[in-house]
Amino acid sequence: MPHSTVVIGMLGSTLDRGVSARRWERWRPTVALGQQEDLRIDRMELLYSREHQGIADTVIADLELVSPETKVRRHVFEMKDPWDFEEVYAAFYDFARSYPFDPEHEDYLVHITTGTHVMQICLFLLIESRHIPARILQTNPAGRRQENPVGTFGIINLDLSRYDRLAERFRTQAEGDADFLKSGIATRNTAFNTMISRIEKVGAESAEPILLMGPTGAGKSRLARLVYELRRRRRLVQGDFVQVNCATLRGDAAMSTLFGHRKGAFTGAAAERTGLLRQADGGVLFLDEVGELGADEQAMLLRAVEEKRFYPLGADTEICSDFQLICGTNRPLEELAARGKFREDLLARINLWTFRLPGLAERPEDIEPNLEYELERVTEKTGRQARFNREARELFLSLAVRRDAAWRGNFRDLSAAVTRMSVLAGGGRITTDIVREEWERMTESWRRLGGAEHEGEEALLSSVLGPDARKLDLFDAAQLACVVRVCRRAHNLSEAGRLLFAHSRERKRNVNDADRLRKYLAKFGLDWESVTSFGKSRSVSN
Description:
Elements (H helix, E strand, L loop, with lengths): L3 E7 L18 H5 L9 E6 L4 H14 L4 E6 L8 H14 L7 E6 L5 H12 L6 E6 L11 E5 L7 H18 L8 H16 L4 E4 L6 H14 L7 E5 L5 H9 L16 H4 L4 E5 L6 H13 L1 E2 L8 E2 L3 E6 L3 H6 L5 H7 L2 E4 L10 H16 L4 E2 L1 H11 L10 H14 L4 E2 L1 H19 L6 H9 L8 H16 L3 H8 L12 H10 L5 H5 L10
Helix pairs in contact: 3-4, 5-6, 6-7, 13-15, 14-16, 15-16, 17-18, 18-19, 19-20
């Protein structure tokens, strides 16, 4: 048995109007539905407000003349404001919930030509979400003038799964945006690529705060700016990208820099200052090293993020600023909050979207593509092109992925190394001698910066075990020394675990790097605090 065709539509209070005989000379969209030769309508659900009862009576009578097989059912549909999105959506939603749809026996078309634009949008959304199991019916007059009483019609199916080419276009755009966030670098680290894909989606869909965690030089600032550029390309922001390193803010200067001040607010405030939060209105504010903010600044920042308003220093009038907040930190904010150094409510507000950027040592497979990227950057800056010869390139990459390559400054170290080698390259060719010279320079720098991290093995173990360090087997001593160095380099237990178990963790179903490291240290009577605090030594457990 063929399905019945049911049309659901709003009465057009203007387009469907007409009582004189001349109304038949005009195109009236609801009446015209019954005049279509290729469209049989078994039932029409006509929605209208009580004040348009007269128009409804005329339209229904005319439909009976042109399409006697069409049964018309009336629905009084009251709304105070047909342009109020919330009210209109709620009214249509209630209608959809109460209507006895029977898709197995009836085909539904929703006529969206009549009604306000808000009504059309709400109906579209309800059809797309399948609250109304229907296709869209659109009608149009035959020409520019509405003198043809019939016009034309078209049926639109919102099942986007049918449009493979469209889906492929969206997929390609998303991949392009993810590539944009990676600065066009063909990274090979699976975890990093997955993280970038998540950030791309969040950056495109959400204006909530984003927290970027990771060691110094991991690329937090660059990624924050790229997220801003991505949102600007999609016309999601119109304001500026405003950046500040919170570690440089102290005292009244911190409050003034962030929130602005009025003239005379404090000694030295000779003129009014806008403040960075106001400058970021309509754009993105990036607070790098947010864990360095003082308690007062944290409290004011929390209110500014939640309410989009704040008081400049010394002001009696609030300032409004609507910005997206991106925070960066190389410190474990959870630990700071536990010690009372960072507000728990602020942390809860800014870590809705949290991403940890791995250091360069955790992404050895990405050193090669980033090497090419840094060479191109040097060329853009200096106008001179420098390239490795084959032997030099192989030598640098072999050294760069060694376990003793600290990369303490992460990508900043890599960028500085490439810059120095490029400057020293005679005729634009980086040779093996230049690579060896640069590697000696970097390793010496890491030794100086590392302090105890790079001290001799015996001294290192003595600092945590005391005289009992001599009781260790050579194998245990070498292994424990490596673990201690990694712990002192890392910011917390979890990060140290990730560094130590970077490859074996991928083969485990349940990953708990911190617990694995905790149990290993316990074998020697050690814990995180005793290893990283350079404090009292402990005896070896036998």
